[in-house]
Design goal:
Blueprint (H helix, E strand, L loop, with lengths): L17 E5 L15 H6 L1 H7 L3 E4 L3 E2 L11 E5 L6 H13 L3 E6 L9 H8 L12 E2 L22 E5 L5 E6 L14 H16 L4 E4 L32 H14 L6 E4 L6 H7 L7 E2 L2 H5 L4 H18 L4 E3 L8 H4 L20 H17 L3 E5 L20 H5 L45 H5 L5 H14 L1 H5 L2 E3 L6 E6 L3 E6 L5 E2 L6 E4 L7 E2 L3 E5 L14
Parallel strand pairs: 1-2, 1-13, 2-5, 5-9, 9-10, 10-11, 12-13
Antiparallel strand pairs: 3-4, 6-8, 7-8, 14-15, 15-16, 16-20, 17-19, 18-20
Helix pairs in contact: 5-6, 7-9, 11-14
Length: 559
């Protein structure tokens, strides 16, 4: 048996929570205008409570021109009219809390929107003005300043610099944007920037949110000299000019002090794309962030050796940091699990996203169901993207005129973008909009005409559906103490099988092969991703084995 990971003393709710990610634009449309909103989300809170989630992570709902799906924030202290009002947001926070569900809001500290008052003032002011000091404005290179200040590239493709036009109509300075030109980067060396975001945190904490998710958390700090990537650190080892810089840690220490100042400590969850577990652990020290997304697990191929290696590395990072492990299969930026797991290459990497990759959706669905039981049995927290509990596939045939994602356009169409995982959810009925909005409403992204079997209504009536599987598994997770705080240890298994136990109460087995494998004698099947499981575990399936739930109400499937 592999070395056992011992249970930890009881910690905050985030240590073993299931956090459900809501992309509000695509969750539920309460006013039939084609865009999801707070009214629709409030109406669906009973669905989320029945699913058994502990918290909701809401992607940006602030006032925004929506150049990047709301991640271009124009005003953190107001809700975009497309989603509702601040008063409605406050009602949602209170109503969710009454159901035992916390709300986590998104903070995007790397950049603002070009429509933010700060940036409008910066553009109106001359070069060298105080208004421009909150951003990265620089003169261009070349004889007339016609070249960008350095060689940095946007995360979305193309240069990371855009040139301004002065009041006299002549070309002016350039400004930095690691994402789209509509998202100018802030200069975190400026005290006003730090003060503003600390104020924003307090604004939302005061309204009762349980925490914040920090977007692009490892990109905020920049080398003040803004050197070329080709020459940074002399071309040798040393700090990157804008990734994972030491200055970040002081920022998050100040945020943790704010989070701890509330009677029920607020939670800071980082989006940190760093492969080095030791470097990642530094963000999770007990005076910085509480948790971070596990992108290594998300990107791992559906392969037992690679999965085990990733799980071991993730648990080691968790132990090193004294922070919870986290498990995530999908989010609003990546190819949906069912589609990805049906491909020859089941891993995920932004650099390899492309159109026209063959997919076996039946195989992908089997693997995604098994992955659901795997993630929910691991120690730590789980982040569940909306629609994963319905087994939704990626929508890969959106018409060109329907696409909205800047990633698609900045790649000149080479990258299909992220719209395919953001298509509005199907709730009921036999035809679009499938209950997302009222009859006759047109969702902001078109739904496939054949999505009726994926609707919540259809799946609630099908005992073998992905939704019913998730409800049963999350009911067990909530009722079995071994899944909350039981020790973790690997068990001997065939090379195509992963098996581990949690405490003395549960064994999880995952069959990665195309052949059935025998189950151990003397077991009780608590739940399986394949309904036919009896004495053998079907191909590409997972099972939880152990004693029957304790006497009493126990886990129940909510309807």
């Amino acid at each position: 048996m592999h070395a056992e990971r011992s249970p930890r003393p009881p910690r905050g709710w985030w240590w073993n929570a299931v956090v459900y990610q809501v992309y509000p634009r695509s969750f539920a449309d309460g006013d039939d205008d084609g865009t999801g909103d707070i009214t629709g989300l409030r109406a669906r809170l009973p669905y989320l409570a029945a699913l058994g989630v502990d918290a909701l992570w809401i992607t940006p709902w602030y006032r925004s021109p929506m150049a990047d799906g709301g991640y271009d924030v124009a005003d953190y202290r107001d809700i975009d009219p497309a989603f509702g009002t601040l008063a409605q947001a406050e009602l949602l926070i209170a109503e969710a809390r009454a159901l035992g569900i916390g709300l986590v809001v998104d903070i995007v500290p790397n950049h603002l929107s070009v429509e933010h008052a700060w940036f409008r003032a910066a553009l109106a002011a001359p070069a060298g003005s105080p208004e421009r000091e909150r951003f990265h404005f620089r003169p261009g290179r070349g004889g007339t300043g016609e070249l960008p200040p350095n060689d940095w590239r946007s995360e979305f493709g193309g240069p990371a610099w855009t040139r301004t036009t002065d009041a006299d109509g002549k070309p002016g300075e350039w400004y930095l944007h690691l994402f789209t030109p509509e998202q100018p980067d802030l200069d975190w060396n400026h005290p006003a920037v730090r003060a503003e975001f600390e104020s924003v945190l307090r604004f939302w904490f005061d309204r009762g949110v349980a925490g914040v998710r920090v977007d692009s958390a490892n990109l905020l700090a920049k080398d003040p000299d803004l050197p070329d990537l080709a020459t940074a650190s002399g071309g040798g080892p040393g700090p990157h000019p804008y990734v994972d810089r030491e200055e970040l840690h002081d920022i998050y220490r100040s945020w943790r002090r704010i989070a701890r100042s509330y009677p029920d400590e607020r939670v800071l969850i980082g989006e940190i794309w760093i492969r080095d577990g030791a470097r990642l652990a530094r963000y999770l020290r007990d005076d910085e962030l509480h948790a971070a997304f596990n992108f290594a697990f998300l990107g791992s191929a559906w392969d037992p050796a690679r999965m085990r290696e990733t799980i071991d590395a993730s648990l080691a990072t968790s132990d090193r940091a004294g922070a919870p492990a986290s498990w995530v299969l999908c989010n609003h930026d990546v190819t949906r699990t069912v589609t990805r797991y049906g491909r020859a290459d089941t891993s995920f990497d932004f650099a390899t996203v492309a159109s026209g990759i063959p997919t076996d959706l039946a195989l992908g669905t089997r693997r995604a169901r098994a992955a659901a039981l795997l993630t929910l049995a691991l120690p730590g927290s789980v982040y569940l993207y909306q629609g994963e509990e319905l087994g939704l596939p990626e929508v890969e045939d959106l018409p060109p005129e329907a696409r909205r994602d800047p990633v698609h356009f900045r790649s000149h169409g080479e990258n299909p973008g992220r719209d395919g995982c953001r298509v509005p959810l199907p709730w009921s009925g036999q035809a679009p909009p499938f209950g997302f909005g009222g009859p006759g409403s047109r969702p902001w992204l078109p739904q496939p005409a054949d999505w009726a079997p994926f609707s919540v209504e259809a799946q609630e009536a099908d005992p073998a559906s992905p939704l019913r599987l998730y409800r049963r598994a999350m009911g067990l997770r909530n009722s079995l103490a071994c899944l909350r705080d039981g020790a973790f240890g690997w068990l001997p298994a065939d090379e195509d099988v992963l098996a581990f136990r949690r405490g003395d109460g549960l064994v999880c087995m995952v069959n990665f092969s195309a052949r059935p494998v025998p189950l151990p004698d003397g077991h009780t099947v608590l739940i399986s991703s394949d309904p036919s499981t009896d004495s053998t575990l079907a191909p590409h399936a997972a099972v939880w084995l152990g004693p029957a739930p304790a006497a009493g109400p126990g886990p129940r499937e909510h309807k």
